[in-house]
Amino acid sequence: MLESLLTPRSIAVIGASRTPGKVGHDVVANLVQGGFAGPLVPVNPSADEVCGFKCYPKVSDYPGEIDLGVIVVPPKHVLAAAENLIDAGAKAIITITAGFKEVGPEGAKLEAELAALCRGRGVRLMGPNVLGVINTHHKMNASFAHHLPKPGDISVLSQSGAICTAILDWAAGRHLGLAKLISIGNKADVSEIDLLYTLAEDPETRVIVGYLESIVSGDAFIRAAEEAASRKPVVIFKAGTTSAGVKAASSHTGSLAGANVAYGAAFKRSGVVRADTFEALFDYATAFAMQPLPKGNRVAIVTNAGGPGIIAADAVENSGMSVAQLDSARAQALRSKLPAAASVGNPIDVLGDADPERYALAVQAALEDDRVDAVIVILTPQAMTKPAETARAIARFAGGQKPLLACFMGGSDVMPARAELVLSRLPDYTSPERAVSALKAMVDYAAWRNRPPRIITRFPVNRRRVERIILRQSKLDLKQVLEPQAKDILRAYDFTVPDGRIAYQASEAVDVAEMVGYPVVIKVVSPDIIHKSDMGGVKLNLGTASAVRDAYDLMLLRIKRLAPQARIEGIYVEKMAMPAQEVILGMTRDPQFGPMLMFGLGGIFVEVMKDVTFYLAPITFDDAMQMLEGTKSYALLKGARGHAGADITEIARGIQRISQLVTDFPQIAEMDINPFMVGPVGAKAVAADARITLSSFEVKK
Amino acid sequence: MLESLLTPRSIAVIGASRTPGKVGHDVVANLVQGGFAGPLVPVNPSADEVCGFKCYPKVSDYPGEIDLGVIVVPPKHVLAAAENLIDAGAKAIITITAGFKEVGPEGAKLEAELAALCRGRGVRLMGPNVLGVINTHHKMNASFAHHLPKPGDISVLSQSGAICTAILDWAAGRHLGLAKLISIGNKADVSEIDLLYTLAEDPETRVIVGYLESIVSGDAFIRAAEEAASRKPVVIFKAGTTSAGVKAASSHTGSLAGANVAYGAAFKRSGVVRADTFEALFDYATAFAMQPLPKGNRVAIVTNAGGPGIIAADAVENSGMSVAQLDSARAQALRSKLPAAASVGNPIDVLGDADPERYALAVQAALEDDRVDAVIVILTPQAMTKPAETARAIARFAGGQKPLLACFMGGSDVMPARAELVLSRLPDYTSPERAVSALKAMVDYAAWRNRPPRIITRFPVNRRRVERIILRQSKLDLKQVLEPQAKDILRAYDFTVPDGRIAYQASEAVDVAEMVGYPVVIKVVSPDIIHKSDMGGVKLNLGTASAVRDAYDLMLLRIKRLAPQARIEGIYVEKMAMPAQEVILGMTRDPQFGPMLMFGLGGIFVEVMKDVTFYLAPITFDDAMQMLEGTKSYALLKGARGHAGADITEIARGIQRISQLVTDFPQIAEMDINPFMVGPVGAKAVAADARITLSSFEVKK
Hints:
CATH class of one domain in chain A: Alpha Beta
Largest sheet of chain A: 7 strands, mixed
CATH topology of one domain in chain A: Rossmann fold
Number of helices of chain A: 25
Shape of chain A: flat
Structural class of chain A: alpha/beta
Strand content of chain A: 15-25%
Radius of gyration of chain A: 32 Å
Helix content of chain A: 25-40%
Oligomer: homodimer
CATH architecture of one domain in chain A: 3-Layer(aba) Sandwich
């Protein structure tokens, strides 16, 4: 895939220029300086040669075949340039030129035409509005960035050209190699999706790094990312996390979800390692590129100073990993080789005067210990410290089965050591906390790689019944599903729902109550009343026929006073659910990633504490259990002081049933089951109230 | 204070050596190379000269006066060396030698003798076990660290010598100047307390930076830190935050508090800026040293690339600051001077080809705008970017009234610019997030500086009554205060407590119930039963005499079965408190910082969600309100959906009363009022249950 884009045999530059500083010149110069091996064809009607290469007035004048075309002419000439390139045989085009979608509707139109042209003729288009594409292993710098990094095994895709230049500059300063660096710009054709698939298969790429501001398709992204993450680490920084569009939501679930939550859920599902800061992007990527994944989360720390050792140990504990203790025999053996004042506890303190050999002894002992899954080596530049020699001494252990990360603190004194470390493929961090964060990312990714196979349960349900209800709603153009129908939908998906029925007069309400058994609850059924409680539209715990009759009459009286315009369909009478632990299950459809399932404990926990978790549908039983465990209030469910434990598997199955329902029926836009009443282990949980909103039917047609 | 230590007129080095690499040599060499201007007196019986200075066999052989002595001889000779120095007139001694308290009891004894000697003769002792002391403005490097940093205005005190060397090395790499760097080691005499006072008054120090693992005294620390922070920023990194000692706690408050929480409360009280990571220490310090404090939290962002601008805006929003919008007239004026594609929204995007002048225009416009409190300038090194020239262009605005922070991203291309920025006193960060964090630290510190005066209310109380109760407990050696007495203590401090009395038989219980009025609650009173509910020792809501009688008999029967050994003092009968919002107020005494007050919403909010805040006593009304506002569940108190608002001032006053009680009575080790029942505005809150534990009486004697 994308061979002509990433490893072209020949390249034409349309708009090549002889004036240094102009993009048309710099692209050609960069290709030349980078050492691109294939034919290079500058095109410009008013030049004979550019950077020592013969320049052609038109690309069709060039006798050979063109594989990749790079366009740097002004926007109005881009279409013609692309057409000429395609005529000359180009299989891929990079349009560096800006001034398209990003400047307004006219640019967007031009961009669409360009994309349509390329797509129609089977040519892949990168851009427009990009820095270009770099492939170090192919000696290709088809960009206007001056740096060609050393060949390495991290590939970068970035939606921001400026971020690309900052990364290139930074990598140069850190002696870090890159495989490919791809600026994806406006993504008129080639997007992060194509690149995830391509880089997943690229043998020169060990780690994929992405800077994204948006994605073209949620579903396609998840598939591509999961595919890529199954083969190699994918580390992504998502910018624009707080600018979540405000969305009118009629459910709790909807109001608590947002783009940032959705991206989090999508990354989690697909195994993407999320970098929360820009610096974390490469902190993580270098660890992944240089070191093997850890088998567990027990971390040994080797240090020549107490203070940084404490900092590292704190960070390990705070991250949820654990500070490892050496096996006692090994600890004793190590102690016998170290000075008396050294400590073989963890941190292993080799003391301020530690020479390279002492470091090597300690690192080796830690790496060989079965109780240790990973080692962090900290060095502070003290009077006797030899940073570069120490780097070389520990580098002997860099290629093992367990990750080894370094934290050489300081500045100029440790600078030569940093270069040694990078050369030995030992990731190096400027602070203990950053080394620990990188290790935690490795631990989490390793856990994802070892996840059990995802088996989506399909419960036997009455799908036809739901189809009929939705069809009827659609005929009546009713987006809000009223409680009787919502309950019917849940019953069809085998939820336990209290026995109940709609009544149209008081005597009928009493009949229903007698049938289902007291106590009952009565609720108004009206398309115009969403918050029933606020309008006096709910009356709980009615124990007798006369109580039902009184409540019925009073409810209608009050609602007619408070909301004279509301259409009343009737009063729903149902058996009171037994008191139990109340939880909320819900679903909202993210515009990018589709159905997001929500779980939270009832009432205050959701409304005030926002103690909820989200997961993308479809969901497995294990995923659902993880959702429960992800809330702080989980302790309550299991049975905290004064609270009996609830049947947790009933909740997990409830979430799975919602997952199946909303996957079967994309027409369901949002839903809450609130409360979902969960009893003790073995008891059926009861969906006491439900709210379902369908998407607008016009959209479906 | 500490003049002889920090600005000595003359220095003797006991244990001077001619062998490079030995500490005794390096200290002399560093003093010479640093350019120390006063007499320098190496002392060593077996050398004639060290580093070109005449060497004396004994310090008494030197004819002049010694101001500061530096000791590097082995531990066993240190006492004699100190004595000789004092005889020779030394007013301060730095003991670099290690091998004291940190190696065991013998070393601790020697250290105590050394400290006693110095204290007895009025000499200040720094160390033992230190790197040394550096004062750049005095051209003094009395340490064995090779780097003498440039003179600057940040002073560092560090409990870890290795951290000092890392900081020195790092500062050299960043072109950053320091004022003083002081390794405080074992703190046998001079500690962080002395240094906070001294550096607070030091005109050469604009910012105090501290790395601490422990403190010598909580109270003294808070006083010294508050004094220092009132004059200049104090930024501290506290290592060892997760190693909180496990402490047997009999109260909720005790079990939720810990050393880390206590340090947080102490820093907050005293205005210390806490660095949560090691890198944040200098990220913050450089901002404070170089730029003025902001007047508010509205941040303008100037950038030459969209991506990093988004990252910065996200970070600003996440931090709780706000992204500023320029005044519309000013925005229009700026727009007219920028290219059409530039954006004058916020971020202000000056585009990828921005020259230094364009940056200057945008920065100036942002700084001059009344709606902007601070400006962050982001630069990515793109093809046309001139980092160093841009640094110079914006440096013109560095000395203004509003903070200006830079984030020049990348590596080698922006390196020359970094040096320019530091020279112009513009703090520079490698990522937008770090710049934003530093700015947030400035905003928080500025808010602390502008805090209202702290007025501690003293309520009229019956202190004598509490004295008598505690005296009686002490005579009986009872640490646990039982409910009747605990309620008496609360009544004495004017808490509203339900009417109640202890009963010794069922008929008496009925009499009390008739007196206080139904419904009542009855509770067992026993020094052996702490968790009364778990033992069936609480019965709520008894509405009739027969209910009281039955409950009384049943309670005694059951408890005798469940806890036959428990001593039963009687059964406490009191009027049921009206249902209301339940909160918990509490206090636990931190070993370092003394009484820490706690607030949280009742039950689950404390036990499961740990949604609590702590504050050090004594507390003001404003502080107490901040405690309430610091919890997530605060929304509930104010009256969230379906919950009426509670009388918040009643809670704040309750916390103030506890503050007064535990300040008056240091014998109170821990207490909870749980639940504290808070009614609607205007209603008295009721202390429905209370648990008070006194400290062991032996300790008091």
